[in-house]
Amino acid sequence: VQLQASGGGLVQAGGSLRLSCTASGTSFSGKNVGWARQGPGKQRELVAVITRGGNFNYADSVKGRFTISRDNAKNTMFLDMNSLDPSDSGVYFCNVRDDFSDSWGQGTQLTVSS
Predict the structure, then answer these.
(1) Quick check: 26 pLDDT over 90?
(2) How far is 60 from 87, CA to CA, in rounded Å?
(3) Partners of 2 in the β-ladder
(4) Largest CB tally within 10 Å, which of 26, 30, 48, 103?
């Protein structure tokens, strides 16, 4: 299983960005898909998930600003981020998991400048 994340970069505060993650060697069907981030000196935190049942869950810190979506036919997930703040900076990782496996992408860096 390989997850390839892309779309990170340098953005000014208040800006927007879309992250993408394409999976190979697995499908999203029947799995939870999500995004986590890890800021400098911080633990990795899950920020957005689509559960296998189709529920959308967000961390309080990103609710109303971030939107997760997926295209099952293309095995690709997205994270649309708006109203970005410097506290959103970090490495963003995509994740696909079920009862038997837990796969992570290599991460893509987001830096939000003030």
Answers:
(1) no
(2) 13
(3) 24
(4) 48
